[in-house]
Amino acid sequence: MRVAVIGGGCAGLAAAVALAERGVFVTVFEAAKQLGGRARGLNWKGKRLDNGQHILIGAYRDTLRLMQMAGIDADAAFMRLPLQLIQHRQFRLRASARLPAPLHILCGLLRAEGLSHRERLAALRLMIALRLSGFRLKQDEALGAFLARYRQPERVTRCLWEPLCLAALNTPVAQASAQVFLNVLRDSFSKTKSDSHLLLPRIDLSGLLIEPLGRYIRTHGGEIRLGATVTAIRRQDEGFSVEYAEETQHFSHVVAAVSPFRLPDLLAQLPQQAQSTRQCESYDYQPIYSVYVQYPDSVHLPFPMIGLTGGHVQWVLDRGGLDGQAGLLAVVISAEGPHQKLTQEALAEEIIRELALAFPELPQPRWHKVIAEKRATFACTPNLERPTQKTDIANFYLAGDYTAGDYPATIEGAVRSGITCAKLILAS
Ligand SMILES: Cc1cc2nc3c(=O)[nH]c(=O)nc-3n(C[C@H](O)[C@H](O)[C@H](O)COP(=O)(O)OP(=O)(O)OC[C@H]3O[C@@H](n4cnc5c(N)ncnc54)[C@H](O)[C@@H]3O)c2cc1C
Q: Are 171 and 379 in contact (CB under 8 A)?
């Protein structure tokens, strides 16, 4: 058995690690010069940044298991915070430290700061109704319509549901799938308390996750080819020929772990490619902008992660408090919005102005860096058809955050899809 994994993002690496662990010979082909895809670190002015500030949660069980398998110490890799959502000067939800799940959240909602009694009860009623329904909808719908049906007051939506939806689904509330949002709530709020913990990376994503996974693959007999764009896959005998950089290699199995918009080209030479690619061709995509602002070293935030409302900034993270890069703040702007119309320079100016308004003691920053990922994730809309990992083509599998599953486009979704592919291959 020789498996080609095409794409060295979280999905491809998860598949390769799970296969290498079982002694299967894998080759990972990655078009870029480094592994990681949409979750990678980069150097800028002597600092380690990420292509996008990532936030993980305790419910990412497969990711945490994969990290453990690869020998990564999650306690050192993350700052683990009991759930606390802060919208600066507006709202604060703190899960109870004493009560077990899900009472810790319900109690947190009852005591949420910044909401009236009526608003707290509305949020609480919704959580109880969801729990009673097993977080299942009879029919998926847009989250905005769902929240209106459950009479969620404007402030509860603005301070709680909307920021959670943008952070988890990267899709505006009016368009987002209510069912996928409920899946995330179910897994993070209703099972064990640690599922709701926020896991904030203490180093850049390459150092934290990607490079250790790559090392694991190599030390378990696998190969990683960087700068190796696969240009065609063809059926050959019982297996596949994989073409890249004027070379061709033969494999018994293939896992295509590329973004959905790369799939049609990659599968063009395969006979039954239509079904898998047709579903992806109708996808829309949503951007994520990350704006890094370097202040003098003495600057730090009162909490590692703070939400802002009313402007472009959605979340601001204190990288100094997380990874020791003093004075470095990371701003996250998820999903589409008016910020896309601004030049990067104008956006940075707006962000710096919004930060100064929120935290008047901030001095002038030294530099800033805007990273725009225009197709950061697929738009997670209601009833989206997502291709399964198993395809119509024997021994050919799809991995990626967009493939069938409960989760939106997240590291956990990507990892789960990769592990599913590995299990299918091992079972075959
Ligand atoms: C800015 C940003 C912020 C995010 N924030 C979060 C967050 O806070 N929490 C969270 O859980 N998730 C977050 N995500 C989502 C998460 O990063 C993705 O869901 C995950 O990384 C997707 O992994 P993947 O392996 O499915 O795809 P990708 O990472 O896109 O991997 C696909 C790989 O295939 C390679 N490739 C493509 N074509 C070829 C070819 N022909 N030959 C060889 N290689 C090829 C690409 O170079 C790429 O490396 C964020 C994403 C972005 C962009």
A: yes
Q: How far is CA 341 from CA 170, 293, 312, 336, 337, in A?
A: 18, 20, 12, 10, 8
* 3-state SS assignment for residue 307: strand
Considering the domain architecture, whether residues 361 and 277 belong to the same structural domain is answered as: no
Whose Cα sits closest to atom 49 in ligand 1?
A: 37
Q: What is the pLDDT of residue 103?
A: 94
Closest protein CA for atom 48 of ligand 1: 37
What does the pLDDT read at residue 380?
Answer: 98
CATH number of the domain that residue 333 is part of: 3.90.660.10
What letter does residue 196 receive in the DSSP assignment? G
Q: What is the pLDDT of residues 218-241, one digit of tens each?
A: 999 999 999 999 999 999 988 999
The number of distinct structural domains making up the chain is 3
For the chain, the first-to-last Cα distance in angstroms comes to 10
What is the model's pTM?
A: 0.97
pLDDT for residue 109: 96
Residue 14's Cβ-count burial label (10 Å; 0-12, 13-18, 19+) is buried
d(CA 15, CA 421): 6
Our mutation pick for probing the ligand 1 site, out of 56, 243, 259, 288, counting the most ligand atoms within 8 A of Cβ, is 259
Ligand 1 is surrounded, with C-beta below 6 A, by 6-12, 29-32, 37-39, 51-52, 54-56, 229-230, 257-259, 262, 266, 288, 290, 373, 376-377, 400-401, 409-412, 414
User: Which residue type sits at 146?
Assistant: F
Residue ranges for the chain with pLDDT beneath 70: 272-275
CA of 414, closest atom in ligand 1: 26
Residues 6+ apart with CB under 8 A from 409: 170, 376, 377, 378, 380, 401, 402
Provide the pLDDT for residue 175: 98
Distance from Cα 67 to the centre of ligand 1, integer Å:
17
Domain termination residue (choose one: 196, 224, 251): 196
What tokens appear for 380 in the block?
């997670």
**What pLDDT, on a 0 to 100 scale, did the predictor assign at position 275?**
66
Closest-CA residue, ligand 1 atom 8, reads 54
Q: Which domain holds residue 60?
A: 2-74+202-283+381-427
pLDDT of residue 274: 63
In ligand 1, the atom with minimum distance to the C-alpha of 11 is: 25
pLDDT at 273: 64
